[in-house]
């Protein structure tokens, strides 16, 4: 599998993320980290959920929508508070798939074969970032590429659903005259 972005669905975005080198003999990913990542992906899926407008809108539906808007404001405020308490790493352009991540090459990038820990913030209001272990692959087309390791089946499936949703939205946004779905 030389080109994981040709084989698997991926999407491009600009998200806050950072990486650090892991020791050569770093232990495998702890089950608690896998559970954390699964919870974060579940929270992001809920935050990204877009309600489908009902055909027969009545007073109850209008009240539910009003409550949803209030909840959205509370979530934005909570996200702002979290960002204030723990600043995010800089947002950088990237491409994400279920198998890995790539970003434009830069000075000081990790070398192929190195193990790194990635901290990836998928949503401003998520309770935390994904914590992903990855192996650095050979750069291609001016991009640093990494393949995720030790994700676990449930986390891989949740990440695949996230990538599918974001990819679908980016395609819909590109087709929309206003650039939005």
Report on the structure:
It is built from four helices and six strands; from the N terminus they run H-E-H-H-E-E-E-E-E-H. The protein has 181 residues and is of the alpha+beta class. Strands 1-2-3-6-5-4 form a six-stranded antiparallel beta barrel. A hairpin with a 6-residue loop joins strand 5 and strand 6.
Give a concise summary.
The protein has 181 residues and is an alpha+beta fold. It has four helices and six strands; from the N terminus they run αβααβββββα.
Task: Report, as a whole number of angstroms, the end-to-end distance.
Answer: 33 Å
Residue windows where pLDDT falls under 50 for at least 5 positions: none
Query: What's the gyration radius in Å?
Result: 18 Å
Shape: globular
- SSE arrangement, N to C: HEHHEEEEEH
Largest sheet: 6 strands, antiparallel, barrel
Number of distinct beta strands: 6
Question: What is the element layout, followed by pairings?
Answer:
Elements lengths: L3 H4 L2 E12 L9 H18 L10 H27 L5 E7 L2 E5 L10 E6 L9 E7 L6 E7 L3 H23 L6
Antiparallel strand pairs: 1-2, 1-4, 2-3, 3-6, 4-5, 5-6
Helix pairs in contact: 2-4
Please describe the structure with a list of short key phrases separated by commas or semicolons:
6-stranded antiparallel beta barrel; 6 strands; globular; 181 residues; alpha+beta; 40% helix; 24% strand
